[in-house]
Amino acid sequence: MLMNMKEAIRQALDLALSSNDDVLIFGEDVGGAGGVFRVTEGLQHKYGEERVFDTPLAESAICGLAVGLGTQGFRPVVEIQFIGFIYEAMDQIFVQAARMRYRSGGRYHAPITYRIPFGGGVKGAEMHNDSLEGLMIQSPGIKVVVPSNPYDAKGLLLSAIRDQDPVIFLEHLKLYHLYREEVPEEDYMIPIGKAKCVKEGQHLTLITYGAMVQSSIKAAEAVEQKHGITVEIIDLRTLVPLDIDTIVQSIAKTNRAVVVQEAQRTSGAAAEIIAQINERAILHLEAPVKRVAPPDTVYPFAQIEDQWLPSVERIEAGIEQVLEF
Question: Given strand 75-79, what is the order of strands in its sheet?
């Protein structure tokens, strides 16, 4: 069935609710309104207010409730309306939930899924479009998943909900309605921690995730037509755990790499990926690894966000710099 990412996520939530009575969905306006983006539309009507319910406008309370429910055998699926609102719940997510299994010696778990819309290119308001995965990946005990397409979104979300550890599931705003693709209606899972080669190539490895996958494909095709080479593209899908083995295997073949991220340049996923490449694959490299990312400023106002975000042209230029080294 053809679905966009929003529809694929909704179907995953529907399947999770129907297959396990311990799955609960809650957050701001997720009930009758179906969430700010209507992702949970119809689920409260189908499963009742005890399974899908609204909460006060208090992220600390929402995520604190999730921790308590998680220790008692429930599987909370929490929606944070926009990524900029997680600051109010950082203690509950990164201290309480992330450390639950360690603190209790394995007696308690926090099988919580945090659904968080994020990302730019949609002319959103301040604190709605940030990419804060750099903060998330530095917190032990939390898994971080970033799907780039409807098929992966459904399979990865079902895996996240059934995981024994807390999972942050980042949903890029631009991808909700960007395109439709064939998505099976039945239940399926995609393993967390396994990257995907979305395009094979011989001369350079391009590593990215989320909405930057689509931009990277366009940039790679432009470079290939211009220079007569082929670019391999790795969609990470999961930032924690990172599938460094797939990255290393690709670089061993291509000998060059570019990492693209939408988050600010410093201390992001790209920095960690490059560090691990240097530890594991430096002898395969014939050029330094290039990082394509926005500058280290706050996310800009909508009028100039297109100049701030990594464009197809900037990714293309980064690829050419590595090829010409």
Answer: 52-54, 23-27, 75-79, 113-118, 167-172, 143-145, 238-240
Mean pLDDT by 10 residues, the chain (325 residues): 97 98 97 95 97 97 97 97 94 96 94 97 89 94 98 98 97 96 97 98 98 97 96 98 98 98 96 98 98 96 94 97 97
The answer to whether 290 and 258 are in contact (CB under 8 A) is: yes
Considering only CA atoms, which of 262, 255, 277, 252 is closest in space to residue 323?
255
Element (H, E) at 215: helix 212-227
d(CA 216, CA 234): 10
Q: What DSSP string describes 217-249? A: HHHHHHHHHHHS--EEEEE--EEETT-HHHHHH
pLDDT at 125: 83
The pTM score is 0.96
* Contact present, 25 and 170 (Cβ < 8 Å): no
Sign of CA dihedral 197, 198, 204, 209: negative
Q: Which two tokens stand for residue 82?
A: 């926009």
Question: Which residues, in sequence order, are CB contacts of 324 under 8 Å at separation 6+?
Answer: none
Q: What is the pLDDT of residue 127?
A: 82
φ, ψ for residue 230 (rounded to 5)?
-130, 140
Helix (H) or strand (E) holding 204: strand 204-208
Rounded CA separation 156/161 (Å): 9
- The residues annotated as belonging to the active site are 128
DSSP 29-90: T-STT--TTSTTTTHHHHH-TTTEEE--S-HHHHHHHHHHHHHTT-EEEEE-SSGGGGGGGH
Calculate ∠ Cα 67-171-60, nearest 5°: 30
Q: 142 — phi, psi (to 5°)?
A: -115, 130
* Residue 198 phi, psi dihedral angles, 5° rounding: -90, -10
Q: What is the pLDDT of residue 147?
A: 98
Amino acid 309: pLDDT = 96
CA 222 to the chain's CA centroid: 26
